[in-house]
Amino acid sequence: MIKRKFPGYLLLAHHIFAAMVLLFSWHSPGIAQPLANQLKSSPSPYLAIHGDDPVAWQEWSPATLELARRQNKLLFVSIGYFSCHWCHVMQAESYRNAEISALINQNFIPVKVDRELEVALDAEMIAFAQGTSGSAGWPLNVFVTPEGYPLYATLYEKPDRFSAILTSLSKEWQSDSKGLKAIAQKSVKAQQPIKKIRLSPALAEKYRKQLVQEALAKADFLTGGLSVPRKFPISPQLSALLEIEARHHDARLAEWLRLTLDKMAEGGLHDHVAGGFFRYTVDPSWQRPHFEKMLYDNAQLAMIYLRASRIFNDPGYRDIAIETLDFMLTEMRIGGGFISSISALDDKGREGGIYLWTEEQLKAALDSDEYALVARIWGMDSAAEFDLGYLPMNRKQPSLDEQKLLKVIYRKLSQARKERNSPKDTKLMAGLNGIALAAFSEAAILDPRYRKAADGLRAFILTSLWRNGTLYKGMSNQRLLGQGDLEAYAYTASGLMRYAQLSSNAGDEKAATQIARSAWQKFHTPHGFLLEQGSELAKPFYQGVVEDGPLPSPSSVLIDTSLRTGDRELHDRARNALADSGALQKQGLFWFASQVTALSRLFYWGAKR
């Protein structure tokens, strides 16, 4: 996550308050009418798995905030997602702990949030956590005042420390709720006026060069990716930098891009047996993944490897893209749509359980020569790094002949692995399926067998999720999941524009244009972009430009998609929004790579790629 600068007096207030929280150890008296857990029948698989917790979880809603105001209680807002490993750990350790649950129920209004369904709330709480403590992630636990101001944020905590935070905070609230409300209100940064900038080809060129400079300054030239302890795919940046490399060759940039793509594919981030990529690795050498698989990672990486195969004329990258798309079709498709994620845990609650192999399991599935080959390539001469066994990866580089043999071996292991299962988040999200539609549309241009998947996705989105001029966030168990947010509209419009290039059907481009126009009307204001219409928090969270995260900036994607259309109104809106990014150069451009792409399209790239 990015560390943001935050006013010194607010950091001091936050640290003083954090110290106060941990000093006290008793909690307030109970309140007469206890709440009941409301999540058992939630259409969100993530919320539903919390339906049996003894915590009296409520859903995020106006009624829940009204309840907090009536009882003058802090809301305990716990944000996570289905495939988040540490979210499950905290559930097992704390939310199913009778004493901790009683403490939460007695003193707070507990709220569980699926971050994929409350993108705007999640983004604002992430910004608050980063601003006040310098870090953020999931599970993200934020104490919010009844008026809707965030007060204090923490991430995963062990039960003893978490219990201390709860008991101390409840005491502080009982003794000085007015003072804590004042601290919370001060912690909300005032809306900064948007700084306009004059757009020009020279500015686009300047931003392009600065993005490359920043990327190379952060680059790890030993193992690829960024020079950080944990390695993430940084897909939006890789996508933007590949487009730059395609038009402005830079030997050092090309070296780093290829190194990153190679290391991700060779190491533990990549599922060598059945295809696809995990979310990230906990080490800097891409060896030890957290085993969740996300639709958004795999769809983006499929496009990145396809693009890289053309830019670098490397068929090996195309093979990885094909494996990734085939994994998505096999493991993530339901009907015409694609599910959100696959858990890091297996159905026995073991992290990585379906991906790891003991020596005995391998010997049972393979003949002696095959076993000898994987033992050498996987580096099995040393002890397994995981309790459950060895993870397939190329610790030694196989020859071309060995690569062919490994494909046969991995088909055997894939067949054996079918007896293993991991829980899946079966939500069919509009925005994520929009990204998948873009991936299959690009792949279908190269390989016609993916046209059917693209056709099915297009039909699912336009018949199930786009209804009477409204795009819904998604669908779960045949239930619609509420009206779409900026991500849903932006990524869906982008996917449909990619599909329109495949189909050459004016109706598909018209649908993309209609969705993009609705997005501008709903989410763009004179103060900047809103991630969602309406907010239960005290103040709207405007952003002149939304930064890139694991997904590309939805505001930048909307701008880029609008420039792809032939619609003059959308083009003008996009140009005006690009002019709102005057503050970016001082902030740094690496985390706004998608905005740099959109600016380059305005002046250089045109409506195609």
Structure description:
With 609 residues, the protein is α+β, with helices and mostly antiparallel strands. Helices cover 52% and strands 9% of the residues. Helix 5 (98-107) packs parallel to helix 7 (159-187), helix 9 (235-247) runs parallel beside helix 23 and helix 16 packs parallel to helix 18. The chain is globular. Residues 1-12 and 22-32 have low confidence and may be disordered.
Provide the residue-averaged pLDDT: 92
How much helix, percentage-wise, in residues? 40-55%
Any idea what the radius of gyration is?
24 Å
Percentage of residues in DSSP E strands: 5-15%
Protein topology:
Blueprint: H1 8-23, H2 45-48, H3 62-71, E1 74-80, H4 85-95, H5 98-107, E2 108-114, H6 119-133, E3 140-144, E4 150-154, H7 159-187, H8 201-218, H9 235-247, H10 251-266, E5 280-281, E6 289-290, E7 293-294, H11 295-311, H12 315-331, E8 333-334, E9 337-338, E10 341-342, H13 359-365, H14 368-377, H15 400-417, E11 424-425, E12 428-429, H16 430-446, H17 451-465, E13 466-467, E14 470-471, E15 474-476, E16 479-480, H18 486-503, H19 506-523, E17 524-525, E18 528-529, H20 554-564, H21 568-578, H22 584-587, H23 593-605
Helix pairs in contact: 1-7, 5-7, 8-23, 9-11, 9-23, 11-12, 11-16, 16-17, 16-18, 18-19, 18-20, 20-21, 20-23
